[in-house]
Design goal:
The structure holds two protein chains of two kinds.
Chain A: H1 7-11, H2 17-37, H3 42-58, H4 60-64, H5 71-93, H6 96-100, H7 115-130, H8 136-148, H9 152-159, H10 163-181
Helix pairs in contact in A: 2-3, 2-7, 3-5, 7-10, 8-9, 8-10, 9-10
Chain B: H1 9-16, H2 22-34, H3 36-42, H4 51-62, H5 73-81, H6 90-96, E1 106-107, E2 110-119, E3 122-129, E4 134-141, H7 143-146, H8 149-163, E5 175-179, E6 182-188, H9 195-202, H10 210-226
Antiparallel strand pairs in B: 1-2, 2-3, 3-4, 4-6, 5-6
The chains are: A mainly alpha, B alpha+beta.
The complex binds zinc ion (ZN).
Zinc ion (ZN) binds near residues 3, 6, 31, 35 and 38 of chain B.
């Protein structure tokens, strides 16, 4: 159950099919939302998302060894290009006029690639995914600590466990989250 | 590590922010589980000083009540069943043997990112033009043809003529190049299997293309006819 390496590192290995599944799990919901907002059917969105994620995986090694690159920026570029291709193709086939006025750029809803939006989504989804690796109590303790900024003492009392157990839960979940999110997020700088 | 040998404060800070490496972490877990002194030290550390912990706090608060998965389960299942290498190296290498270039190779400033198809005379790759930042289709002509001087000169001549044409429906040709003896053509990504197929499969433009390629490309070829291109031999 323990993942030995970060997701990025595992995605370089083409035989690690589990890594692909994790990658899909992590990013597909966000990209689906983004594609739908731009008017794609779920079928088209699925094709787009597959192309996007496949291309990223294909170039993961290059990304991994370039510490200055932001995954969020890269994802946004790849996704935007792919969607542009999609509309260009459709435009050739159907009607240039109708598509010229389509909502590719003019979208005033939440931008999933905005730094804060992206970070909140990816962390939230990753947490949701790794929770299956821990027992319910560990997960509840962790969420309680994160959500309400409570002290270990308060949380320990609330759950009827020792403070030791609270710190243990916190460290274990944080470790797993960090590992999973390694290089996928640009963390904010020190306060 | 026993309860008697407590870790240093810096290690405890890493522990409570989840920043310890996994091999060390297990020993630390075992220690923290039973050590009252360490728990007292841990309670003095404000983990929210750590940017990662702070971001996680914010994410949990901001997304409280939202389901990050929302209704994507169906699409996730579909994508999981697809191999990440589908459309890249997988079926092509299995079916046709070795590719002339591997995915990830660069031909000048073109980075090969996938395989789009394979014709009688070569392989069409998906590529990224790193200079202009656009996706293109790149067709590599098989060596035996590329090495045939007559084929080569006719091919280049026709390609040059096409590049000089402007027509709504004619596939634009971005670039013709040579890399370590391999001849390649660069076209827009989405039309990589139309005109390029003609050049690759036939070695020249067809005389009567309409039936084979449909009205759009055909009218482009009519433009080619109009300038006498098709009769270049
Ligand atoms: Zn201790």
């Amino acid at each position: 159950m323990d993942t030995p390496a970060s997701l990025i590192a595992r995605l370089r290995n083409e035989h690690d099919h589990d890594a692909w599944n994790v990658f899909v799990d992590l990013y597909a919901p966000m990209l689906l939302r983004w594609c739908r907002r731009r008017g794609l059917s779920d079928q088209d969105a699925a094709d787009c998302i597959q192309d996007i994620l496949t291309l990223l995986v294909g170039r993961m090694r290059e990304f991994e060894y370039d510490p200055n690159r932001s995954f969020r920026g890269w994802l946004k570029t790849v996704a935007t290009n792919r969607l542009h291709d999609f509309f260009t193709r459709r435009q050739r086939i159907i009607d240039a006029e109708a598509l010229a006025s389509s909502s590719l750029e003019t979208d005033n809803e939440v931008d999933v690639f905005d730094e804060q939006e992206y970070r909140d989504y990816v962390i939230g989804r990753a947490l949701q995914m790794i929770e299956t690796d821990f027992d319910d109590k560990t997960c509840d303790i962790f969420r309680e600590l994160m959500l309400h900024h409570q002290s270990a003492e308060e949380v320990a009392e609330q759950f009827g466990v020792s403070r030791n157990a609270v710190y243990l839960a916190k460290s274990r979940v944080l470790r797993r989250l960090r590992e999973r999110l390694d290089r996928l997020i640009d963390w904010p700088t020190e306060r | 590590m026993t309860a008697r040998s407590c870790p240093e404060l810096s290690t405890l800070i890493n522990y409570v922010t989840g920043a310890v490496a996994e091999p060390d972490a297990i020993a630390l877990d075992n220690h923290i589980q039973v050590c009252a002194d360490c728990v007292n030290s841990l309670s003095q550390i404000d983990s929210a000083h750590d940017p990662v912990v702070r971001a996680i706090h914010a994410a949990v608060e901001n997304s409280c009540g939202n389901d990050p998965l929302f209704d994507a389960a169906e699409i996730i299942a579909k994508l999981k069943s697809a191999s990440p290498t589908r459309g890249i190296a997988g079926p092509w290498t299995a079916e046709f043997g070795t590719l002339p270039f591997a995915i990830g190779d660069r031909l000048g400033h073109y980075l090969l990112t996938g395989v789009l198809g394979r014709g009688g005379m070569g392989v069409v790759y998906e590529a990224e033009d790193e200079q202009l930042g656009r996706r293109v289709a790149l067709k590599v002509i098989r060596r035996e043809f590329a090495n045939d001087l007559r084929f080569r000169s006719r091919f280049l001549q026709e390609a040059r003529a096409i590049a000089g044409l402007m027509h709504d429906h004619l596939v634009p040709l971005h670039h013709i190049g040579e890399f370590h003896g391999s001849l390649f053509l660069v076209m827009p990504r989405l039309v990589g299997s139309t005109l390029a197929d003609y050049l690759v499969q036939k070695g020249k433009l067809p005389e009567q293309p309409a039936i084979q390629i449909g009205a759009q490309i055909a009218s482009g070829l009519a433009a080619a006819h109009a300038v006498g291109l098709v009769h270049v031999t």
